[in-house]
Write a structure and sequence with these properties.
2 copies of one chain form a homodimer. By secondary structure, chain A is α/β, with parallel strands linked by helices. The first copy, chain A, has 2 domains: about 35-75 and about 160-325, HAD superfamily/HAD-like (Rossmann fold), CATH 3.40.50.1000; about 80-150, no CATH class. Chain A is about 40% helix and about 20% strand. Chain A has 14 helices and 9 strands. The model of chain A is unreliable at about 1-25 (pLDDT under 50).
Chain lengths: ~325, ~325
Amino acid sequence: MTFELNRRSFSLAGLAAALGLATPVSAAEDPLPSWNDGPAKRALQAFVRRVTTQGPDFVAPAERIATFDNDGTLWAEMPVYFEVLFAVDRGRELAAKDPALAAREPFKSLVEKGAAGLAGLTQAQVVELVAVTHSGMTTEQFQQIARAWFATARHPTTKRLYTQMVYQPQLELLAWLRREGFKTFIVSGGGVDFMRAFAEPVYGVPPEQVIGSSVETRWEMREGVPVLVKLPKVSSVDDKDGKPINIDLQIGRRPILAFGNSDGDLEMLQWTQAGPGARLMLLVHHDDAVREWAYDRDSKIGRLDKAWDAAVKNGWTVVSMRREWKQIFPPE
Amino acid sequence: MTFELNRRSFSLAGLAAALGLATPVSAAEDPLPSWNDGPAKRALQAFVRRVTTQGPDFVAPAERIATFDNDGTLWAEMPVYFEVLFAVDRGRELAAKDPALAAREPFKSLVEKGAAGLAGLTQAQVVELVAVTHSGMTTEQFQQIARAWFATARHPTTKRLYTQMVYQPQLELLAWLRREGFKTFIVSGGGVDFMRAFAEPVYGVPPEQVIGSSVETRWEMREGVPVLVKLPKVSSVDDKDGKPINIDLQIGRRPILAFGNSDGDLEMLQWTQAGPGARLMLLVHHDDAVREWAYDRDSKIGRLDKAWDAAVKNGWTVVSMRREWKQIFPPE
């Protein structure tokens, strides 16, 4: 049972605690029920206790910044980044209305073969596909397009909605960190507008705490009403060193906890580690071929190679999906 | 008396309210004591009541975004933007250690005449001064430099610390909006790193809610420790249409309240107005030559010309400093 007080709820247990009353903590209150009682869960519990308890490692709530990569860290990324699958569907929609577009690559392959057509495209053609499908509309129109896709599109093999391809253990971790006074941010190579179309309802992360890759926008007056038009020109690639650069620009404070899964997260984890005081760096290891996918060093996307070596060297926490996660996806 | 609960304090009155107990509201609890009981204060009170009360104009707390310009809106901007005065002091420090720098403009004039030397510089020379004094160091070194300046530098005419050149009525407004569930952002043409050096202790606005102009940074490993180096290349000018563009990029949600003071804020106010539901757009009018400065249409900085006309046409709230503010600056 919760009361709504000044825009956030607090539990009866919290109220009792504030009034100095003892409250029993039962096993049912485990904030991470989908995490096995293994080294990763224990590292998280020990870290949160250290930084939230008065003592040498205490961190003021305002400085409890936690940053999470998205693809492969908060949701799956196989067989290909979901945003590329969105671009395929959107590209086919555009081609259906424009024969000239349908007749040329990269659209021709997608019209003929669907997502399977991606295999025959060059890297430059995929980039063009993403650019064309992510520009030419206002920022608000893009939100509507992305939300409509999330409401109906389904993953090619699991047939789940993409918003159900998120990791249940991470949903629990995000919610628990926020209850412990952390501010949770997404810092991902994905498009910022694409992620904002679902981050708040699914992850509980509001748009102002989503950092991602972006395109330039142009201010325009349309019949007296201002709009921002998305242009086919990348303004920021939020990957590798782009992550600490954007963290510094948009957060202005160094994270004390960072969670990634690939070499694209290496610099974010190094940046997090280099600050003073208690720090926790984590990497998801995709080693569960039965319940999810298994890949790391030789993967074309989500490659975990240099970041793995850094984890071993620096004692970062590698989270084996197979061993540490009781459940991967939320119940449908 | 307050309890500390889960990183935020709440009053006995708030607790009583949560438990359904009646609490008397006395005149002493006026959240805006430095505002006269005039049209601006009444507009603010009516707006906050509308959006926080269940009804047709209710706005969910997560969507209560308020954006404030800084120069001329939250603190003074005369005789020149304070960040330029910081650049003058910093430029003289650099010149004192480097005779080659001291011998050439724009440094030569500043070494000889101090801030008075600004008058003889071209616009391009002032831009160079700002670029040189805001780059070449790591982001953390810049924070230290700026904080040291704020700790000792004083305004040329009032002799106050710059952190005491903030407007007391605005400090009250920021704090009150936050108590009413708003998230308060600064969106200003000032340098983001410069503003972050004082925004949290002075305004209660954390670094991640400060948006400003910025330079590019470069990721670099120095003896195994990563740093971000500020480069003399502007990446974003957070002024005019740059304001809604950065609001969209970094907040991803349209403000429902925006407060500016000059033509540089016009697009931010237009963007705020163009959303659905209840909206409040405000402009500070610097019309108090006795307690502050008086300027508007013909001013070289802080010019209030096109935005004034838009305010008249659209019914935005113009806040006369002379008539609406009981007190301008906080007690020393």
